[in-house]
Amino acid sequence: MREATGLLAGLPAGLRASLAACLLAGPCAAWTSEVRAGETRAAMVVLPPVVTDAELFDATGRTVRFRRDVLGQGVTLVTFTYRGCVTLCPLSDVIAEHVEALLEKAGAGDVRIVTLTLDPSGDPVELRRHAEQIGMSPRRMLLSGDLRETAPLLDGLGAPFGTLENHRLFFLIFDAKGRFVDRVALDKAVPEDIAARLVAISGR
């Protein structure tokens, strides 16, 4: 129970209860153990991400370059999601949503939250459908792209393509100039802490 509590700290009580039920039963529990093991190994050799200027597209079909158009345009929180995942990706998405609400409350609504899909897609319609399914705010950017562009980017960020049953989730923080600041493991991700860090970096 303590492990699930650590993952869910900072979330609203109702949401915390429903997600805790998932984490303590079925495939969630086994998958959470795999994630923790992976995060522990990764923590031994945490290196700054290598950011490629991948050509991606958003849910409207607009094309962007990751380094040129996404990073360096303001303080940015980068998250990841695997379309179709019903285990921990919903938790990651909800944490990002909660961080967004806290940023708005703190008057830092211009801090960007960008979510990259861990599965390649060539269809903006699929992205738009996923954004609608998870109730993603129009302010957030959901990005994907062709495998040739997304694979080097995700590898460099430390989040290589996985499978629906096994993929790595964490949060990356970049400053207003696109410089890497920190990596937050999913089991250490408290929305209030992340939001406070983003607000501090933005100078508010």
User: How many individual helices?
Assistant: 8
Largest sheet: 5 strands, mixed
Helix/strand order, N-terminal first: HHHEEHEHEHEHEEH
- Unreliable spans are 1-7, 14-18, 20-45
Number of distinct beta strands: 7
Percent of residues in beta strands: 15-25%
Calculate the mean pLDDT score and round it: 79
**Helix fraction bin:** 40-55%
3D shape: globular
Task: Sum up the structure in keywords.
204 residues; alpha/beta
Strand and helix map with partners:
Layout: H1 2-8, H2 13-23, H3 26-44, E1 55-57, E2 63-65, H4 66-70, E3 76-81, H5 89-105, E4 112-117, H6 124-133, E5 141-143, H7 147-157, E6 170-174, E7 180-185, H8 191-202
Parallel strand pairs: 3-4, 4-5
Antiparallel strand pairs: 1-2, 3-6, 6-7
Helix pairs in contact: 5-8
Write a brief caption for the model.
By secondary structure, this protein is of the alpha/beta class. The protein contains eight helices and seven strands; from the N terminus they run αααββαβαβαβαββα. The relative contact order is 0.20.
Give an overview in words.
By secondary structure, the chain is an alpha/beta fold. It contains eight helices and seven strands. The strands form two sheets. A five-stranded mixed β-sheet has the order 5-4-3-6-7. Strands 1-2 form a two-stranded antiparallel ribbon. Strand 4, helix 6 and strand 5 form a beta-alpha-beta unit. The longest helix has 19 residues, at 26-44. The termini are far apart. The model is unreliable at 1-7, 14-18 and 20-45 (pLDDT under 50).
